[in-house]
Design a protein that fits this description.
- By secondary structure, this protein is an alpha/beta fold.
- Helices cover 42% and strands 12% of the residues.
- The protein has helices at 3-8, 24-35, 39-46, 53-61, 64-79, 120-128, 150-163, 174-184, 188-198, 213-219, 226-238, 255-272, 298-311, 322-325, 327-333, 364-373; strands at 82-86, 88-91, 137-140, 168-171, 200-202, 243-249, 275-282, 317-318, 340-343, 377-381, 387-390.
- The chain has a four-stranded mixed sheet. The chain has a four-stranded parallel sheet with strand order 2-3-4-5.
- Helix 4 (53-61) packs across helix 12.
- Bound molecules: ligand V47.
- Ligand V47 binds at residues 103-105, 173, 204-207, 209, 244, 246, 248, 279, 281, 283-284, 288, 321, 342, 350, 354.
- Ligand V47 binds next to strand 6 and strand 7.
């Protein structure tokens, strides 16, 4: 089943009755929006019209619960009560990195204690170790290790595929793809078909940070710029691959820089349609060079989910990544604009090195329980949002629990 059919499976909120008058629920929403100074924005949201960047900035000033309610309206228009998850595992093939991003606790210099590089066989062993679990995706990202050659990346993909041929490999952020193309000494357009041939299925959303040049200069100056990230994403989408997109919030960026980031994602999406899911990433300061920054609160995280849902009218999904948000916040986010919680993950390093305390080795049944507890219908998807199982279908049907 495709994303489109999955969407039509959910209840769509009614904004008007048979005579064309606003329903009581819509009238209530408009009243609350008026009190919050967002009546014009609410009218645009109900009419499925695009919000301007000025509207976006106002969403940071207004009552969070009204902003959340508007975002929830859009989320239910797109997906009804459905909330997506997958059974996945993360593999970080190296933590060696030469980019020295100030917000990162995961990176190590080559000779620093704790630095590691997995051989393709060692990465494959992590896949083999999960063969008893119904894993459909591996999310494979890492630092930028200057010594890894092009052949390593191809071997890595092939080794993972050999270990579990049916697995979907979502791998290599735009930053890694830039490095891989440099190592291959070929343009990315020529490298992507070779990576796809070796097993690459789609591209995750990391490495985007905040696109503004000021933030790039101050916190991740050795890494590709915002413009470069977007240009690489354009190339990825033109190759036929889908990707996700992210925004790292709660460090040194301003609200205007966040809205600019979302606007640039939206404009690229108008052009390519290649983004599946937007994931706001809340800054975790522990063990980073920015450990004095307090990081976002749970309320900030909910607002970022809602603002993303309202601004990114052309990106189908918004993910509340439970690993970094904490489970109760991710559950709440499913009523603030999010329709996806990511997956079982198994082993997470980037956020746990930076202070995250969420559990690891979470089972599929646990994710399903969390989603039901949040009042949503769990739907297991594959990476490309084909539906594998729906929690509202009788067991034993074509999408029986696996
Ligand atoms: O690229 C690094 C960010 C990203 C910190 O595509 C940090 O489905 C907060 O992109 N605090 C990696 N953020 C994670 C990522 C991701 C996660 C889940 C799903 C998907 C997807 C993508 O995490 C990095 C960087 O932007 N990051 N350090 C930190 N201390």
């Amino acid at each position: 089943m495709s994303t489109t059919s999955a969407r039509s499976g959910g209840a769509s909120p009614r904004t008007a009755d048979a005579s064309g008058s606003a329903t009581p629920a819509t009238r209530g929403l408009l009243r609350r929006a008026e009190r919050a100074g967002l009546l014009d924005v609410a009218h645009r949201v109900l009419a499925a019209q695009r919000l301007s960047t000025e509207d976006g900035l106002r969403l940071y000033e207004a009552d969070l619960f009204v902003v959340g309610e508007l975002a929830n309206h859009v989320r239910e228009r797109l997906h009804g009560d459905l909330a997506f998850f997958n059974v996945n595992q993360h593999v970080n093939y190296t933590n060696v990195c030469n980019k020295l991003c100030r917000f990162c606790a995961f990176q190590r210099l080559p000779n620093q204690p704790g630095a590691y590089v997995l051989s393709p066989e060692e990465a494959a062993e992590k896949i083999t170790a999960q063969l008893a679990e119904p894993v459909t995706e591996v999310h494979m990202v890492a630092g930028i290790h200057p010594k890894l050659e092009y052949a390593y990346y191809l071997d890595l993909l092939r080794a993972v595929k050999r270990a579990r041929p049916a697995i979907h490999i979502k791998a290599f952020t735009m930053v890694e793809l830039d490095q891989i193309a440099k190592k291959a000494k070929k343009p990315l357009e020529q490298v992507l078909p070779e990576l796809i041939e070796a097993g690459l299925g789609s591209v995750p959303g990391g490495g985007a940070e905040i696109f503004a040049d000021r933030v790039h200069q101050e916190s991740y100056s050795l890494k590709i710029s915002g413009d470069e990230w977007l240009a690489l994403a354009r190339t990825v989408h033109r190759s036929g691959l889908k990707s996700n997109c992210t925004m790292l919030h709660g460090h040194i960026e301003t609200r205007a820089e966040r809205i600019d980031h979302l606007d640039r994602l939206r404009r690229l999406q108008d052009e390519t349609g290649g983004f599946q899911t937007y994931i706001p990433l809340s800054f975790h300061p522990e063990n980073t060079e920015m450990s004095d920054v307090p990081g976002p609160t749970a309320l900030d995280e909910l607002r970022e989910i809602a603002v993303g849902r309202l601004m990114l009218d052309n990106i189908p999904h918004v993910k509340a990544y439970w690993i970094l948000m904490d489970v109760p916040v991710a559950q709440t986010a499913l009523s603030f604009g999010a329709d996806d919680v990511d997956g079982t993950v198994v082993e997470e390093k980037i956020y746990h090195e930076a202070g995250a305390t969420t559990p690891q080795q979470v089972q599929r049944d646990e994710l399903i329980r969390w989603i039901r507890d949040a009042g949503r219908v769990p739907v297991e998807r594959d990476t490309l949002y084909n539906v594998l199982w729906r929690g509202d279908e009788p067991a034993g049907g074509s999408h029986a629990p696996r």
